[in-house]
Design brief:
about 325 residues; alpha+beta; Acetylcholine Binding Protein, Chain: A; Methane Monooxygenase Hydroxylase, Chain G, domain 1; 4-stranded antiparallel sheet; 10 strands; Neurotrans-gated_channel_TM; transport; Putative glutamate-gated chloride channel; membrane; chloride channel activity
Length: about 325
């Protein structure tokens, strides 16, 4: 901080050099603006090995006061685009009791805010920051305020590895069911259920690390889409299993349920060695043969349709949300 105090004009006393003050006793007697950080949740002044304060008085009465402070600032974040979001976190400074008529503060004209070293954060990159000044009207009067806004861009690499890749892999694994023969529905159902619970488990771990919000996030759209694709695979398996038994008489249907693998093999390759097949009428054999062909055709179509739909969803998802910028302005209560 720097201000002009005419009472400290050293030229009146014949002093034409800058004075440096140290010690709490001397610095405490100086007039200082009663500034505070509006959105600070926690703050501390460094005092190892001595209070980290600097007071310099120029001959014309200009006072330079510096102190090393550690701050934890609150930031209202919007997670609609999580984890592709960009956050704007402010730092607001204003006098506590000194009104505009008593104290008016402003940023330095040159280099109002400088970073002595690059800020390293685990999940964000600081891409830019800018400063501003305004007057705040309150019930007690008008106050001069300063603000600095830090624009943070979230690093997506962690979420690609921990969220997107595992769920995408689970969807791919669910498609293996289309290559499993239709006479093993138990294995196909088990594969779909396992991948579904895998995606739900990943979604639960993501929610555990996120604040509770009422709106839909970008990651929620992705998780929901993965669940829909896996559920669609389970629905396809159910449809195939139903088509094999469609339009068959109850006696034939029970036999199909009991030995579907043997029946399909014999119908397909023309070796009706099973006693039940030898007694089966021609219409039932033809109907079972048509049902098997329909089910296999759906499986073959699903092998191409599901990946194409998922690829189209990825194209729309990444193009739309990568281009969309959602910024939340901070409103002081």
């Amino acid at each position: 901080q720097s201000w002009l105090d005419p009472r400290l004009n050293l030229l009146r006393f014949g002093i034409n050099e800058t004075l440096m003050l140290s010690g709490e006793t001397l610095t405490a007697r100086l007039w200082k603006p009663d500034l505070f950080f509006v959105n600070a949740k926690d703050a501390a002044i460094h005092s190892i090995t001595a209070p980290n304060e600097l007071v310099k008085i120029d001959p014309d009465g200009t006072v330079l006061y510096g102190v090393r402070v550690r701050l934890k600032l609150s930031c209202r974040m919007d997670f609609r685009l999580f984890p592709l979001d960009k956050q704007r976190c402010p730092m607001i400074i204003r006098p506590y009791a000194q009104k505009t008529g008593q104290t008016r503060i402003s940023w330095a004209r040159q280099n109002p805010l400088t970073l002595e070293f690059e800020i390293q954060m685990e999940e964000f990159d600081l891409i830019e920051f800018h400063t501003g000044a305004y007057e705040e009207k309150r019930q007690l009067g008008d106050f001069s305020c300063l603000n600095a806004t830090f624009v943070l861009y979230r690093r997506i690499h962690y979420h690609l590895i921990q969220s997107y890749f595992p769920t995408c892999l689970a969807v791919f694994i669910s498609w293996v069911a289309f290559y499993i023969t239709i006479h093993l529905p138990q294995i196909r159902f088990a594969l779909g259920v396992v991948t579904l619970f895998t995606v739900l488990s990943i979604a639960s771990s993501i929610r555990a690390t996120m604040p509770r919000v009422t709106y839909v996030k970008v990651i929620d759209v992705w998780i929901t889409a993965c669940i829909i694709f896996i559920f669609a695979e389970l629905a396809e398996t159910t449809l195939v299993n139903y088509l094999i038994r469609m339009r068959l008489r109850p006696a034939v249907m029970r036999r199909v349920d009991f030995g579907i693998a043997n029946l399909i093999h014999q119908i397909r390759y023309g070796y009706p060695t099973d006693d039940f097949l030898l007694k089966m009428d021609t219409s039932s054999k033809l109907e079972l043969h048509r049902n098997v062909k329909r089910a296999e055709a759906i499986d073959r179509a699903s092998r191409y349709l599901f990946p194409l739909c998922f690829a189209f969803f990825n194209l729309v998802y990444w193009l739309y949300y990568s281009a969309k910028e959602y910024e939340v302005e901070y409103h002081n209560a």
